[in-house]
Design a protein that fits this description.
Blueprint: E1 13-15, E2 20-24, H1 30-37, E3 42-45, E4 50-54, H2 57-65, H3 70-80, H4 87-99, E5 103-108, E6 111-115, H5 121-128, E7 145-148, H6 153-162, E8 167-169, H7 191-201, E9 210-214, H8 221-232, E10 236-240, H9 243-256, E11 264-267, E12 278-282, H10 283-286, H11 306-310, E13 315-319, H12 326-334, E14 339-344, H13 354-361, E15 364-367, H14 370-375, E16 382-389, H15 393-401, H16 404-412, H17 416-427, E17 433-436, H18 440-450, E18 454-455, H19 461-473, E19 478-481, E20 496-499, H20 507-515, E21 527-534, H21 538-546, H22 548-552, E22 557-561, H23 562-566, H24 570-576
Parallel strand pairs: 5-8, 9-14, 9-15, 10-12, 10-13, 11-12, 13-14, 16-21, 16-22, 17-19, 17-20, 18-19, 20-21
Antiparallel strand pairs: 1-2, 2-4, 3-4, 5-6, 6-7
């Protein structure tokens, strides 16, 4: 039966001319509509019954680069819209998606060029005259192309995106040193992992070899990286968020590929600065500044950024690319001739630099909805709960008199949360549990109360690894974590996470923390994520913002009252179990 594509008042979407889209979440077709618009629309607001999405130029260009053309996007909107689509929106979608691919970077006789197809010469003249673009172009090569200095490849892409014209870069890449590499026998690559690596590599064509793969935590993004490395088979630099993450990459590389220990090196503190065919380095290490490097007006001096520039890499992998620091953006603009793979659970950046990721790492090549992988059993079924509590009377006046930033901390670290944490852990006594938060004094207090170890930034790496191993083996069933636990923790049995505080309204942090418990469990075992929020405080506002990305992925939060935890009724306990 053909899908209905004409407007229908019984449909769940209202589409506005300003490119906002309202979804009725109570509608029977709301989930199908959400999945249909997810590739090209970004969630902005998510009150209980009506979610508001916005279609942006960047969201459309990401969709176009992934193969969603204007007619397909318009058809998806029309299929679920209550009313006729505004004519201006249909035109906007067609024109914006149509911009992708009109400007192309190519290589002709080893010269980098920006060009257009025959008949599009006025566009090239238009962008070439723009004040941000003109200084980055070389001499004209006929009416349809300009030469480009190699070093301007990245910054030109940034400049053109900022003036509304994305560039399709098909100039190809400089090969790095050869690295014979394949996956070890018996390594199971899931279908979507192979699809993601293939979408990045694209058979080695000039169009492939740069871009971002978006998959939820626990779904095996590292395997995607290993498959991509086996496709490229060249020296590789892997950039990670932490030494814990670098160590986990090393374990995976040695266990699941044909690489030997001498071919994989961790470049970092307390080690010789070793370079190997596969080198692992943290963002923090890469952006370490030289002591006493210049005055206030001096250009920052970074000790290790040349690691990216000076070695013969054929591939650079950016793990958790949404956390890419600004100095690495700058250097990544310089090394556009190298293949670049970004791995992330969410392209959301709180600094608004998603456009730089698009320009400098590459467009989104692959994105798989979280709920789809949950349905297929590749990540755990997750239950999200927001537990609301009140400030004790003794803290209420302190909160009212505090400055805004101090108010948030007072609300987030209230001692009233300690008893709720104990009650939650008692209810889930058999579940391997993580407690995570932002503020060390709060975490130290909770860890002491629970008799559980705390892992934070100053915890020595060998001690961290020992505690993680104890948790994996079952010798430990509770760990308290600072924000060092936000990313890349391989704790597959963790089934319960209690978030006691967070980094204000960070959507990426909320998504990553849920991800700590999403690795698949034994049959019938799901994951539970609790976030504790203080009523009538700024924490409520920030919590709503934090939850937006997960809401976009189809998760909803059950709202619960802390009083039910501290004096639970039999009916309440049965419901939770």
């Amino acid at each position: 039966m053909a899908l209905v594509t004409r407007p229908d008042p019984a449909n769940p979407l209202i589409v506005h001319a300003d490119r906002t889209v309202v979804l009725e979440t109570f509608h029977p077709r709301s989930e199908a509509a959400r999945v249909a618009i997810a590739p090209f629309a970004e969630l902005e607001r998510s009150p209980e019954h009506l979610h508001t999405y916005r279609i942006t130029p960047l969201s459309l260009w990401n969709a176009a680069s992934a193969g969603h053309d204007g007619p397909a996007i318009v058809d998806a909107l029309r299929r679920y819209s209550k009313f006729p689509l505004p004519p201006s929106l249909e035109v906007d979608v067609a024109e914006l998606t149509g911009r992708w691919g009109r400007l192309r970077m190519t290589s002709v006789d080893d010269e980098l060029r920006l060009g257009v197809a025959e008949g599009d010469e006025p566009l090239l003249v238009q962008v070439a005259r723009h004040e941000q673009v003109a200084p980055l172009l070389g001499p004209a090569r006929g009416p349809r192309a300009f030469a480009i200095v190699l070093g301007n490849r990245g910054v030109l892409k940034q400049a053109l995106l900022s003036v509304g014209w994305p560039v399709q870069d098909v100039a190809g890449y400089r090969d790095g040193a050869s690295l014979p590499l394949s996956l070890a026998l018996g390594v199971d690559v899931r279908g979507y992992q192979a699809e993601a690596a293939d979408a990045f590599y694209q058979g080695g064509s000039a169009a492939g070899g740069s871009g971002v793969v978006v998959l939820p935590p626990g779904s095996g993004k590292t395997i995607v990286g290993l498959v991509a490395m086996a496709r490229v088979r060249q020296r590789t630099l892997v950039l990670t968020t932490s030494r814990t993450s670098a160590s986990q990459w090393r374990r995976e590389l040695l266990a699941k590929t044909t690489l030997t220990p001498d071919q994989v090196a961790e470049y970092g503190p307390n080690r010789r600065k070793e370079i190997a065919p596969v080198t692992l380095c943290t963002y923090q290490m890469l952006t370490t500044r030289a002591r006493g490097a210049g005055g206030a007006d001096a250009e920052p001096s970074y000790l290790h950024l040349d690691l990216m520039r000076q070695h013969d890499w054929g591939l650079i992998v950016y793990d958790e690319v949404h956390l890419l620091p600004a100095p690495v953006f700058r250097l990544t603009a310089e090394i556009q001739a190298r293949r670049r793979l970004g791995l992330t659970a969410t392209l959301v950046r709180e600094d608004g630099r998603e456009g730089d990721v698009f320009s400098l790492i590459g467009p989104k090549r692959y994105d798989r909805p979280w709920r789809e992988l949950e349905r297929d059993g590749w990540i755990a079924v997750a239950d999200c709960c927001e537990v609301r509590l009140r400030l004790p009377e003794g803290e209420r006046m302190d909160y009212a008199l505090a400055e805004p930033r101090a108010r948030y901390r007072l609300a987030a670290t209230t001692v009233a949360k300690d008893a709720v944490v104990r009650a939650i852990l008692a209810l889930h006594a058999d579940a391997p549990a993580l407690v995570i938060g932002q503020y060390l004094d709060q975490l130290e207090r909770i860890a002491a109360d629970l008799g559980a170890p705390l892992i934070q930034g100053d915890t020595p790496q060998p001690q961290r690894e020992r505690l993680f191993d104890d948790f994996r083996s079952g010798r430990l069933t509770r760990l308290v974590l600072s924000k060092v636990g936000n990313f890349a923790l391989d704790l597959p049995d963790a089934a319960l996470l209690v978030q006691v505080s967070g980094a204000f309204g960070s959507r990426q942090e909320e998504a990553q923390r849920l991800g700590r418990v999403l690795r698949p469990k034994a049959r019938g075992v799901g994951a539970t994520f609790y976030t504790l929020v203080t009523r009538e405080t700024d924490e409520e506002t920030f919590a709503h913002h934090r939850q937006r990305f997960l809401t976009e992925q189809g998760y909803s939060y059950r709202i619960m009252d802390a009083a039910e935890w501290l004096q639970p009724s039999p009916r309440h306990s049965a419901h939770l179990n």
